[in-house]
Amino acid sequence: MADSGSELGELDFEQVTPEKFAQLVKRTPAKEITALMRGELRARVLSEVFSRMERQFRPENAGSLNAVIRWEVTGESTATWETSIADGTCTAREGAHAANPRVTLTMGDADFLKLVSGNGSPVTMFMTRKVRIAGDIGVASGLTRLFDIPKG
Predict the structure, then answer these.
(1) In the chain, which stretches have pLDDT less than 50?
(2) In what residue span(s) does the SCP2 domain sit (predicted)?
(3) Cα-based distances in Å from 142 to 12, 35, 47, 72, 125
(4) Which of 21, 98, 104, 120 supports an S-S bond with 134, CB 3.0-4.6 Å?
């Protein structure tokens, strides 16, 4: 059987469920994730994760929230994405578009994948400085309930 790192690197995102992705992230050591997150694969992984955020959004938990969340994923370079939550919808797009996002979350590649796959405790990651938060900490603390995140 292939090791988890090579499985992650060869992943066909069209076919993998969020639960399977969470299992692969859980089995793959952070050093391997960091090594894999380079070039085209990194761009493909980030693009897929953010497009799935739109589909896994739980509008019933958002209430009247209107916010832009900026994600800065550091690694070989900083990839910036924004998710906009407004009127019961979530849209994601690459780049920094909002002049003043409500909150900015900054973390490395491996920590980002652990967070969005349900394999990392947001509170612990914040307390250990694996995730840095600038802006509205209240919005940041409520993000996990806004998305259908697999239980890693």
Answers:
(1) 1-4
(2) 59-148
(3) 30, 30, 23, 18, 14
(4) 104
CA-wise closest residue to 68 among 52, 60, 80, 56: 80
pTM for the full predicted model: 0.88
Number of domains in the chain: 1
Whether residue 151 is contained in a domain is answered as no
Contacts of 14 (CB under 8 A, 6+ apart): none
Rounded Cα–Cα distance for residues 48 and 44 (Å): 6
What's the pLDDT score for residue 17?
A: 83
Predicted confidence at residue 94, as pLDDT, reads 97
Nearest in space to 133 (alpha carbons), one of 89, 101, 87, 94: 101
In this prediction, residue 41 carries a pLDDT of 87
Angle at 76 between CA 73 and CA 82, to 5 degrees: 25
**The two structure tokens encoding residue 28:** 């793959």
Q: Does residue 20 form part of some domain?
A: yes
